Structures are given as C-alpha cells and as structure tokens.
Amino acid sequence: MGIHVAIVGAGITGVILALGLERRGVSYTLYERAPAFTEIGAGIGFSPNAESALMSIDPLVHVIYKKVASSSKQDEYFKWVNGKENNEIIARLFIGYDAFQGGRRYEFLEAWGAHIPAGRVRFNKEIESLVQRDDGKVDLRFKDGTSDEADIVIGCDGLRSRVRQLMLGEENPASFPRYTGNFCFRSLIPMEKAQKVLSHERTLSRHMYNGPDAHIITYPVAGGTLLNALFVGTDTGPWQHERHTAPGTKAEVVELFKDWHPSICGLVDLLPEKLDKWGLFDMYDHPAPCYNFGCVAIAGDAAHASGPHLGSGAGFGIEDALVLSTVLECANRDITSHQSGKATSQICRDALAAYNAMRFDRDQWLPGATRKALDLFHWRDEEVGGTDHELFLKKIHDLFHTIWDNDLTEMQKEAREKFQDTLLTKP
Question: Which of 108, 209, 253, 268 is a Cys-bridge partner for 216, taking CB atoms 3.0 to 4.6 Å apart?
C-alpha cells in the first residue's frame, strides 16, 4: 500500500500539487477552508518558469492554463514607463512569445479544480492542529470537530499559514509574515475606458509605470475585455488593521498619484469609489529555517511569501509542487516495491528532506529579490534612482532571468537524486 498525502489549502500551489499527485498515481486528499475553489485577489500572471512547470506537472494542466489565460499571440515584453514625468517608455525586457499571460485567479482555480476528482477534495475544512503519532502517521484535526490522518501533510495554506505555525511553533517569529511598508489597491477596469486614457497600444500587454515611492502595473485579462491594474504605494508606519486587507477609497489612490502624468491621473479616475486596500507582507525579516519537520512540510506562500513585484510567487509555488510531486512519486514507488526496506514514515521524512534541500535556497532568495525590484520601481535604488535607465534594465534583467532561467528538467533530476541519497543514509 502506498502513501497518502494531505494537502492543506486549495490555492494555486495546493491545487497544482493535487494535480501533480493525481498524474503520478499518489493518493491524496485536498482540504480547503472555503466552500469552493476560490482565491482572493484580482488578476494574476504566470512567468515563463511557471508555465514550463505547469507542463511538467501535467500537459493537461498547461492546456487548461492556455485556455483560461488572455493570449496575445505575439512576442511579449515587459515595458517600464516614467509614470511621474513624461509617460515615456524607459526600458523594455523581452519575455518570450505569448508569454507571461494572466487572467483572474478564480478562473484558473475553477478550471484546474474541475479536474480533481470530487472524492479527493473536502471543502469547509479549516485546520486547527496536527499531531505526529508514534506510528509515523499524522493526525489532522479541524475546527469543525472532525479529524483525519495521512502519511504526509503539506501546508499550502498561504501567507497566514496555520500549518507553518504548527510546524515552527506559535511563539516563533518565523511563523508569521511581516508588513513590508508597502500596500496596494487592485482593480479590474473595463478595457474600452482604459484605452481612452492610456491608448490602445498600452492596454495590449504588460506595462509598469514607475515613480517616486509608487508604481502601477497593468495587463489585459478576461480575453482582453478588462485591464487588471495594481496600484502600489509606500507606507512609513505600521499596518493598522487586524487583517491584511482593509476598506480603501479611490481618494487614497488619487492622493498617491496626484502629481503624476495626466494619463496616470486619468487611469486613477476610472477606479470605483470603494476599493480593497491590501497590506503587502512577506517572510523576509523572519524566514522559515526549513520547510520540513518530520512528515509535515510547507510550500508556496506558506513557506516563502514575497511581494508581487516580480510576479513570481505563484510560479515558485508551482515549482515547489513539481518537486514535491517528483519526490513523493519516488517515495510511493519505493514503499510499494519494498525496495529500500525502510519504514514508511522514514521514507516520507526522506522525501520531504529532499524537497527541502532542493527548494530552500532558491525559494529563500525570492522575498529579498522582490524587495530589490521594488526599490528599482520606486526610484529608491541609490545607483539607479529614476534616471539611469541602462543600469535599471541590467539590474531588473538579472533578477527576472534568475527566476525564468531555472532548468526544470535538471531540477527534477536533482530532486530524484537527493531523495535517493537521503534514502540511502541511515535514519
């Protein structure tokens, strides 16, 4: 009999991990506290490394992605604009053909979730506690009073991960994200209205408008009928709200960009009067010391939450899911074949140790790199400021290509090798 994996959290990382295990014949149950597949947030884009990882998880998963994403059918570039002074493009970075496409988060989750068998997912299940038993199993106890068990638990439960708290300890600063001093407003703007203020060309692809202590990202979603817009600002004080989202207003965004170019002011004017304001939190100040403990592990934002400024949080979570799918398939095969002779619980621990060894350094790099990118966008980088566009492009090129140029074939090969090496060592 093979292993059974409990996945806590049905956001993008959890759903992709479930589909990866489904493809590889590894038994799992996906638990989600919400009543259906959904995720907060407006739009999301998937970086080239994320798209490649989706293909490696399962070609069907990639097909679904392409059906939902807003396709351009052309070469794609990041384009940065001086949004404060003259509305002129200051830098361009080639991404690829029909690359870094996006859409609305819930549409991706619903489309992918439709391919998870109904018996594999349980909604309205909020994790309360975990107990690692002497026999190697892990008990999951939920807030509704029910419980379940698994050989392995993977926490994909996001920024405020309960699994991370249980794994690292509720008194550990690494169990909780910290406010970055930045916030954002998100909105989906009707394309026809957006084109009148930005121009038709500016709404066809991804653009970023940079300036002092603020920036805006725009890109088309919903088949080109809506423009996803993210307005990011800087805060000098602590986050004053209990939750990471709070009621916001259009007036706040108007104040933030009041001295910017008229086109930017025109875009802001299209916003509704009431908005959600998002505090941007990450794991940079107190990173998790590891992603595994016994037969429990964390992945995605639960492990390495970062800001949205490099557009790679979801992509790194998908890479996590790919490595987990790879090593758990190996573990399942070893257990069913009795090849190593080790106990099931030890093989499970070996698999999660291999996952941690494979992902930790790359994942830990992302929150700090994202903060560096934000300094570039907000004209706070001391070498670049708002005028050295050539140096800006070099620095941002290096950050993005560190993300995009990950060799996924080699990553999976190394993950298998790390598992085998760990499996051969004595417990």
Answer: 209
